Amino acid sequence: MTDSGKQILDDTQGRMDKALSHLRDELKGIRSGRATPALVENIRVDYYGSPTPLLQLAQISVPEPRQLAVKPFDIGAIKEIERAILKSDTGLSPSSDGKMIRLSLPPLSEEQRKKLAHRVKDIAEQARVSLRNIRRDGNKHIEQAKKSAEISEDQARDFETEIQEGLKKHEGDVDDILKAKTEEIMTV
Fold first, then answer.
1. Is the dihedral of CA 122, 85, 38, 90 positive or negative?
2. pTM for the whole structure
């Protein structure tokens, strides 16, 4: 294997791994039947004029299976945190005692579960599209390396085959992640 082709292959695989990691992170924030800090940790709070993730402003815990407790590091930010939670698409209503915010998760109806499952499916499809775009970019770089005589035609074909196999593996991972999250949402 040549350095140029190997470098293109490694870069393509790394980008595919990052796309999968992004998918997992995005799905963490989608509500299933139980409370998890990931539901709210990325909500952006307007903290002294700059949008800051809630995770950086407060400690988030799960005192009960259907409840989240948000304890701000700065009590003065409690109103902004409440406002940000209300504006977010989580559907949660904060209740504050002045020192801590409690978020109760109501049970999901069957219709809500189906909507969330559909949303998860859409997010997974976006991840597949992203993976295919990464494959296209990798193949384009292989073609450029072949044209500039950095790699031979046979090597180019081998690299393209490896990129395709990587895509198939990562798409299989997307399917597994989608299936697991859908089951988690639909389980009552």
1. negative
2. 0.74
Residue 20's contacts (CB-CB under 8 Å, 6 or more residues apart) are 127, 170, 173, 174, 177
How many residues are there in the chain?
188
Element (H, E) at 171: helix 153-186
SS3 151: coil
- Predicted confidence (pLDDT) per residue in 52-66, tens digit: 998 899 999 988 888
Report pLDDT digits (tens) over 122-150: 999 999 999 999 999 999 999 999 999 88
The values of phi and psi at residue 34, to 5°, are: -125, 160
Model confidence at 116: pLDDT above 70:
yes
Structure confidence at residue 3 as a pLDDT band (50, 70, 90): confident
Task: Tell me the domains of the chain and their CATH numbers.
Answer: 3-28+109-186 (1.10.132.20), 37-104 (3.30.1360.40)
Q: Classify residue 12 as left (phi > 0), alpha (psi -120 to 50) or beta.
A: alpha
